[in-house]
Protein backbone atom coordinates (compact mmCIF):
# COMPACT_ATOMS: atom_id res chain seq x y z
CA UNK A 1 0.00 0.00 0.00
CA UNK A 2 2.88 2.31 -0.73
CA UNK A 3 2.43 5.80 -2.04
CA UNK A 4 4.31 6.28 -5.27
CA UNK A 5 4.89 9.60 -6.92
CA UNK A 6 5.98 9.97 -10.51
CA UNK A 7 6.95 13.16 -12.27
CA UNK A 8 7.11 14.45 -15.82
CA UNK A 9 8.38 17.91 -16.74
CA UNK A 10 6.30 19.63 -19.42
CA UNK A 11 5.91 22.73 -21.53
CA UNK A 12 7.89 25.85 -22.27
CA UNK A 13 8.01 26.70 -18.56
CA UNK A 14 9.26 23.25 -17.54
CA UNK A 15 6.52 22.54 -15.03
CA UNK A 16 6.63 19.38 -12.96
CA UNK A 17 3.41 17.42 -13.32
CA UNK A 18 3.07 14.69 -10.68
CA UNK A 19 1.06 11.51 -10.39
CA UNK A 20 0.51 10.47 -6.78
CA UNK A 21 -0.68 6.88 -6.66
CA UNK A 22 -1.44 4.04 -4.31
CA UNK A 23 -2.01 0.72 -6.06
CA UNK A 24 -4.45 1.41 -8.90
CA UNK A 25 -5.72 4.82 -7.70
CA UNK A 26 -4.07 8.15 -8.45
CA UNK A 27 -4.37 11.92 -8.35
CA UNK A 28 -2.73 14.18 -10.94
CA UNK A 29 -1.06 17.38 -9.75
CA UNK A 30 -0.37 20.43 -11.96
CA UNK A 31 -0.75 19.15 -15.54
CA UNK A 32 0.85 22.24 -17.06
CA UNK A 33 1.09 21.38 -20.75
CA UNK A 34 1.75 18.58 -23.29
CA UNK A 35 -1.30 16.38 -22.77
CA UNK A 36 0.03 13.39 -24.70
CA UNK A 37 3.40 13.44 -22.92
CA UNK A 38 1.66 13.44 -19.56
CA UNK A 39 -0.64 10.57 -20.55
CA UNK A 40 2.19 8.39 -21.83
CA UNK A 41 4.94 9.27 -19.33
CA UNK A 42 2.71 8.91 -16.31
CA UNK A 43 0.86 5.95 -17.79
CA UNK A 44 -2.53 7.50 -17.01
CA UNK A 45 -4.56 4.83 -18.80
CA UNK A 46 -3.50 2.28 -16.20
CA UNK A 47 -4.95 4.07 -13.18
CA UNK A 48 -8.32 4.84 -11.73
CA UNK A 49 -7.83 8.60 -11.74
CA UNK A 50 -9.53 10.40 -8.87
CA UNK A 51 -9.04 13.90 -10.20
CA UNK A 52 -6.71 16.79 -10.91
CA UNK A 53 -5.43 18.96 -8.08
CA UNK A 54 -3.61 22.20 -8.79
CA UNK A 55 -1.20 23.75 -6.30
CA UNK A 56 -2.13 27.11 -7.82
CA UNK A 57 -3.73 28.67 -10.87
CA UNK A 58 -0.77 30.06 -12.80
CA UNK A 59 -0.88 29.68 -16.58
CA UNK A 60 2.15 27.41 -16.67
CA UNK A 61 0.48 24.86 -14.36
CA UNK A 62 -2.98 24.56 -15.92
CA UNK A 63 -2.40 24.15 -19.67
CA UNK A 64 -3.39 20.48 -19.87
CA UNK A 65 -6.07 20.48 -17.17
CA UNK A 66 -9.13 20.86 -19.41
CA UNK A 67 -8.12 18.18 -21.91
CA UNK A 68 -7.13 15.59 -19.31
CA UNK A 69 -10.25 16.33 -17.28
CA UNK A 70 -12.45 15.76 -20.31
CA UNK A 71 -10.58 12.73 -21.59
CA UNK A 72 -10.88 10.85 -18.27
CA UNK A 73 -14.06 12.50 -17.01
CA UNK A 74 -12.52 13.48 -13.69
CA UNK A 75 -12.97 16.55 -11.46
CA UNK A 76 -10.61 19.52 -11.26
CA UNK A 77 -9.88 20.90 -7.80
CA UNK A 78 -8.41 24.33 -7.09
CA UNK A 79 -8.53 26.88 -4.27
CA UNK A 80 -11.27 29.44 -4.95
CA UNK A 81 -8.87 32.37 -4.58
CA UNK A 82 -7.04 31.27 -7.72
CA UNK A 83 -10.17 31.01 -9.83
CA UNK A 84 -9.47 34.19 -11.74
CA UNK A 85 -5.86 33.21 -12.49
CA UNK A 86 -6.98 29.83 -13.80
CA UNK A 87 -9.77 31.20 -15.95
CA UNK A 88 -7.53 33.91 -17.43
CA UNK A 89 -4.61 31.62 -18.16
CA UNK A 90 -4.42 32.58 -21.81
CA UNK A 91 -4.22 36.27 -20.96
CA UNK A 92 -1.15 35.62 -18.81
CA UNK A 93 0.32 33.29 -21.40
CA UNK A 94 0.13 36.07 -23.99
CA UNK A 95 1.63 38.57 -21.54
CA UNK A 96 4.77 36.47 -21.24
CA UNK A 97 4.96 35.82 -24.98
CA UNK A 98 3.63 32.27 -25.06
CA UNK A 99 1.45 31.98 -28.14
CA UNK A 100 0.29 28.43 -27.43
CA UNK A 101 -3.19 28.89 -26.01
CA UNK A 102 -4.90 26.40 -23.76
CA UNK A 103 -8.48 25.46 -23.09
CA UNK A 104 -9.86 27.09 -19.95
CA UNK A 105 -10.73 24.45 -17.37
CA UNK A 106 -13.94 24.29 -15.38
CA UNK A 107 -13.32 24.07 -11.63
CA UNK A 108 -15.45 21.31 -10.11
CA UNK A 109 -14.55 21.65 -6.47
CA UNK A 110 -12.78 24.20 -4.32
CA UNK A 111 -9.93 23.02 -2.14
CA UNK A 112 -10.90 25.53 0.58
CA UNK A 113 -13.91 23.33 1.40
CA UNK A 114 -11.79 20.18 1.72
CA UNK A 115 -9.23 19.79 4.51
CA UNK A 116 -8.02 16.56 2.97
CA UNK A 117 -8.47 14.15 0.06
CA UNK A 118 -8.33 10.40 0.05
CA UNK A 119 -6.02 8.03 -1.73
CA UNK A 120 -6.87 4.47 -0.67
CA UNK A 121 -6.30 4.51 3.10
CA UNK A 122 -4.00 7.54 2.95
CA UNK A 123 -4.89 11.18 3.32
CA UNK A 124 -3.61 14.05 1.23
CA UNK A 125 -3.75 17.05 3.57
CA UNK A 126 -4.39 20.44 1.97
CA UNK A 127 -2.50 23.40 3.45
CA UNK A 128 -3.53 26.84 2.22
CA UNK A 129 -0.26 28.74 1.76
CA UNK A 130 -0.99 32.09 0.10
CA UNK A 131 1.84 34.28 -1.15
CA UNK A 132 3.00 33.07 -4.53
CA UNK A 133 -0.70 33.28 -5.37
CA UNK A 134 -3.66 33.96 -3.08
CA UNK A 135 -5.08 30.50 -3.52
CA UNK A 136 -1.84 28.57 -3.42
CA UNK A 137 -1.87 25.27 -1.53
CA UNK A 138 0.68 22.68 -0.48
CA UNK A 139 -0.25 19.00 -0.50
CA UNK A 140 1.03 16.77 2.29
CA UNK A 141 1.10 13.02 1.95
CA UNK A 142 3.27 10.89 4.23
CA UNK A 143 6.66 12.62 4.30
CA UNK A 144 6.18 14.35 0.96
CA UNK A 145 5.06 17.91 0.39
CA UNK A 146 3.99 19.14 -3.05
CA UNK A 147 4.55 22.89 -2.91
CA UNK A 148 3.96 24.27 -6.39
CA UNK A 149 6.11 27.39 -6.73
CA UNK A 150 6.33 28.18 -3.00
CA UNK A 151 9.75 26.60 -2.62
CA UNK A 152 11.99 26.00 -5.59
CA UNK A 153 15.41 24.46 -5.02
CA UNK A 154 17.91 27.24 -4.42
CA UNK A 155 15.25 29.89 -4.88
CA UNK A 156 12.77 31.15 -2.34
CA UNK A 157 9.67 31.31 -4.44
CA UNK A 158 8.77 34.04 -6.79
CA UNK A 159 6.57 36.81 -5.41
CA UNK A 160 6.51 39.29 -8.26
CA UNK A 161 4.08 37.42 -10.50
CA UNK A 162 0.34 38.03 -11.07
CA UNK A 163 -1.51 37.34 -7.82
CA UNK A 164 1.54 37.22 -5.57
CA UNK A 165 1.96 38.95 -2.22
CA UNK A 166 5.30 39.21 -0.44
CA UNK A 167 3.94 39.58 3.13
CA UNK A 168 1.69 36.54 2.84
CA UNK A 169 4.56 34.68 1.24
CA UNK A 170 6.81 35.26 4.25
CA UNK A 171 4.07 34.02 6.62
CA UNK A 172 3.46 30.91 4.51
CA UNK A 173 7.16 30.14 4.15
CA UNK A 174 7.65 30.34 7.90
CA UNK A 175 4.66 28.01 8.32
CA UNK A 176 6.37 25.52 6.00
CA UNK A 177 9.74 25.87 7.78
CA UNK A 178 8.09 25.34 11.19
CA UNK A 179 5.98 22.35 10.21
CA UNK A 180 7.72 20.42 7.47
CA UNK A 181 11.36 20.10 8.41
CA UNK A 182 12.65 16.76 7.15
CA UNK A 183 9.99 16.46 4.43
CA UNK A 184 10.76 15.76 0.79
CA UNK A 185 9.81 18.93 -1.08
CA UNK A 186 8.40 18.33 -4.57
CA UNK A 187 8.41 21.69 -6.34
CA UNK A 188 6.59 22.96 -9.42
CA UNK A 189 9.89 23.48 -11.24
CA UNK A 190 13.27 21.81 -10.80
CA UNK A 191 14.40 19.00 -8.58
CA UNK A 192 12.97 17.63 -5.34
CA UNK A 193 14.97 18.21 -2.16
CA UNK A 194 14.79 17.68 1.59
CA UNK A 195 13.78 20.62 3.75
CA UNK A 196 16.63 20.50 6.26
CA UNK A 197 18.27 23.17 8.43
CA UNK A 198 20.71 24.00 5.69
CA UNK A 199 18.08 24.61 3.02
CA UNK A 200 15.83 26.50 5.49
CA UNK A 201 18.70 28.83 6.39
CA UNK A 202 19.42 29.46 2.71
CA UNK A 203 15.75 30.28 2.06
CA UNK A 204 15.60 32.57 5.09
CA UNK A 205 18.46 34.66 3.74
CA UNK A 206 16.53 35.15 0.49
CA UNK A 207 13.20 36.26 1.97
ZN1 LIG B 1 3.43 29.95 -10.18
ZN1 LIG C 1 5.26 27.76 -12.09
UniProtKB/TrEMBL annotation:
Gene Ontology molecular function terms on file: hydrolase activity; metal ion binding
CDD domains cross-referenced by the UniProt entry: metallo-hydrolase-like_MBL-fold
Metallo-beta-lactamase domain location: 14-189
Keywords annotated in UniProt: Hydrolase, Metal-binding, Zinc
Pfam families in alphabetical order: Lactamase_B (PF00753)
Cofactor names: Zn(2+)
Name of this protein: MBL fold metallo-hydrolase
Amino acid sequence: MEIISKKVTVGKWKVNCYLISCEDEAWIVDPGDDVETIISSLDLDNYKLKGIINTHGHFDHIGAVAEIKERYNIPFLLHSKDKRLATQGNLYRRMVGDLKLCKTPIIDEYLDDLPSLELKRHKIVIHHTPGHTNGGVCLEINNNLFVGDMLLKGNSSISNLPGSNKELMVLSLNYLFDNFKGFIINPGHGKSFILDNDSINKFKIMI
